[in-house]
Design brief:
The chain is mainly alpha-helical and 135 residues long. It has four helices and no strands. 77% of the residues lie in helices and 0% in strands.
């Protein structure tokens, strides 16, 4: 069971970035499926760690592109990335302290942040990327 499916409305028309966004969707769906089966406590630590590592890789790619084209909104965009990583790190710390009772909160945060970030913030760079041939 999936919480939400990839749809073209989420596409930024950059193949590598769309592929990475799709992986993020799958991680969120993995958590949702575990929650639906009452197994969130069993998988949340692994999913949070995977999200933490994967988003850092994904953000580095976007930020590399920003730097290569001198994207004017890169600082604001990077600040959103940093805030996301900080929030995920907060969840990691809670897990290390033995608290795994926040799976619904995590799921809601991830879904809302990803959709808002892609459709709002990420879509802003599409014309710039296209102008510089980033596909």
């Amino acid at each position: 069971m999936k919480m939400f499916n990839w749809d073209e409305k989420y596409s930024v028309e950059i193949v590598s970035i769309d592929s990475e966004h799709q992986v993020l969707f799958e991680l969120i769906n993995k958590l949702y499926e575990a929650m639906s089966q009452g197994k969130a406590r069993d998988v949340i630590s692994g999913i949070i760690e995977e999200l933490y590592e994967y988003t850092k890789t994904h953000f580095r790619r976007e930020e590399f592109y920003f730097k290569s084209i001198s994207y004017t909104e890169s600082e604001e965009h990077k600040a959103q990335h940093d805030a996301f990583v900080e929030k995920i790190n907060h969840y990691r710390q809670l897990i290390k302290q033995g608290d795994t009772s926040f799976s619904v909160e995590v799921l809601t945060f991830l879904r809302d942040w990803l959709i808002t970030h892609i459709q709002g913030t990420d879509k802003k760079y599409v014309p710039y990327f296209k102008k510089y041939g980033i596909r």
